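Support request, please re-run this one:
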Amino acid sequence: MCNCQRLMGALVTVAALLCTSPALAVLNVNYLPDAGATMTVQNIDPIRTGCDMAGATVTVHYVPGLEDGAPNPETVNLTCPSPPIGRAIGVHWMLELPGDSDVSDWMLFGNASGSFCIDFIEIDLFPGNAVWDKCDAGAATNTPNSGPGITFNNGPCVGGSGTTVVTGGGNWDVDVQYWNPVALSGAPMPLGDVHQIVRIDFVNGCFDVNDQMTWRDDTDETLFTTGVERSPWSTIKSLYR
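Re-run finished. Output below.
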């Protein structure tokens, strides 16, 4: 297939996703405790667009038996189709960040057809030289150079708890959990605002045909990452459910 055909196919997919989206609703978001192993970076820069994070991985976990031909799990890299846009397109879904993460919304779309049902997604920013930057609660919880941060959909700052709501179209609520706190080299410990991975679970339902979700979640650029990968979710999921 020539490049022009591939481009036209991608444009048709995006157009179908955008034109068949349902009316948006207010959905409940619950924040689970942070988890995972401490990671280390040399430095952080607070400015990061979707395009800047090309290479980050988006892993979609379908409800077993409801993949409709997709691999389960399905991992896709964020790409930069045109600055400042970052985009990942899977078999049944598309994730896009159209600009700087502190002023632009992340957008997840489900295809207009298919018999698929997404259980949860994990977005790992380390391969894109980036980290998630949650809202801090002041200097004591603000990693140097990371900026004030934004927790998923303007959720609680470091040390806070509770629920909020997210804009979406579907019959489900959301659990959010940040994985692998990140510290600067030489720091005695992470301050709790910066993380490698965010996991988003769809509860009381699943993300399927024509569903969509829009949220704000800040990110930062990283330099020189070291550390160990987190434990597989399956080994510790029972601690949080």
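The two ends are 46 Å apart (CA to CA). Confidence is low (pLDDT under 50) at residues 1-21, 228-241.
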